[in-house]
Amino acid sequence: MSDVVKGEAVVIRPATEGDVARVVAFLNQPTVVEFWPGETHEHVLAKVRGEDDVTPFVVEVDGAVAGYIQYWEEDDPDYRHAGIDVAMAPGYQDRGLGVDAVRTMARYLVVARGHHRVVIDPAAHNARAIRAYEKAGFRRVGIMRNYERGADGTWHDSLLMDLLAEELGE
User: What whole-number distance in Å separates Cα of residue 80 and Cα of residue 86?
Assistant: First the structure.
């Protein structure tokens, strides 16, 4: 995405190599790392350089980097949809900014990228994220058992959530 996308309070722009250190620093903070384990400088840099299957962005609030959001796309015409991952820096959590970022990215994926469905898959025990995604319009689809390995090295369930284009309220 070369476009800058504006939400109500956030601006989402493509991540650059200059953003990597800041993003890695907050991804490794206690309120974030549990849900984003193993995010090293090299890993995030590879994403920014296009060496990964995601497209990375930063979330800005009043010109400051406040979060990180990425999307991936399934391009098989019979299964076409997109997925979002998001993390807000500790000082920007619990302020509705993540809701705005997710809603803004979902709208971009539907309107500009032509997707009819967007998914997100928080850890099943991440109540804060699940509440935020529901506020953004996502609905619970079901539990994906032992879906991801957590920071503690054990497998954890995730909740599959989705949002259909017609549910965006456009």
Answer: 21
